[in-house]
Amino acid sequence: MRVESSVTSVSWIPREAVEGITQLPWEFGITHYDLPPPDVIEDVERLLASDAARFANELRAWVEVWDGRITGYGHGGRGHVGATRMRLGGMRIQFCAVSFPDLRAEPEVGDGWVRFVQTAGGRPGMPVPRRVRGRPYVRIVGPTVWSTLALTIRADGSSDFELLGASPFPRHWLYDHTRRLVAKTGLIDFRTWYLEASPEHSPWGGEDSPAVVTAVESAVERQLSLLMIDADPPFRRLRPGETLVEQEAPGDKLFLLFDGVLAVEAYGQTVTEIGPGAILGEMAALHGGRRTATLRALTPCRVAVVAGDRLDRKALADLARARTPNPRHATTS
Fold this sequence. Notes:
This protein is α+β, with helices and mostly antiparallel strands. 15% of the residues lie in helices and 42% in strands. It has helices spanning 24-27, 44-49, 190-196, 219-230, 282-287, 313-323, 327-330; strands at residues 2-12, 55-66, 69-81, 84-88, 91-95, 98-99, 103-104, 108-110, 113-123, 129-131, 138-140, 145-154, 159-166, 171-175, 181-185, 213-215, 235-238, 243-245, 253-259, 262-266, 269-274, 279-280, 294-297, 301-307. Residues 325-333 have low confidence and may be disordered.
């Protein structure tokens, strides 16, 4: 019997993720931020060809099982790096990306399981002059992007995955063997990536960067987040330790956590931690009441702020009902 499984990371650039003077091409419409990828991926190559994501790491593998024992195994999949598309006046320019060789460790074989590891990535084709730490102090190439995935397949037919590391920029979303979104990275560090992400400081140079992985928000939240983004909301930035709202404080604003990780605290105790994509504040917006929890930044955070009356109340009520059975969500508004 053959058991097959896969894990795929898809990487994209959310709104407001680029900082400093580097964001000018985005502000002038020369290039663009990306909308969130779909909840289910049908075709990775088509996704990149449509300019809906920047690169992907597709790790596929299989094991042969006979009488409960693994008798063979194989490693498939590869990296996909998309082109950079820009507009200058009436012209459209495309810069082909530079793909680096996929890195595959020798599969690790245990008692009833095999673990596969794969790194994929490269760099944007568009030349970018940038200051770097160390000689030659200026590079005229795009920084390096990558993700490192691990996939374990067992003789009983089960499997699981890990994101072992990833470039600090852009955002990386993880899809399981059904091609469904199941996890995401919680923090973008554009400044570190822009200064330091080079082939020498990447898995191709023997270095990797750990990634903060967070759970996926609900489908209702993803639908509402698109409406909030369309409203062109202002953003707040929080440093670690700063609070977004305090428990019992009045308020009717809604919040979309765009980047970073927030701790949810009730009566001085941390209830849970939440990552990008979470919508917060719906209970106070619906009922004109007080905040039911304190929200404190565990990492640098970017939060979109929207007036409570900008979104459909029925959609907010649906979100509140969906959260009621779950203590994780019951204390985040």
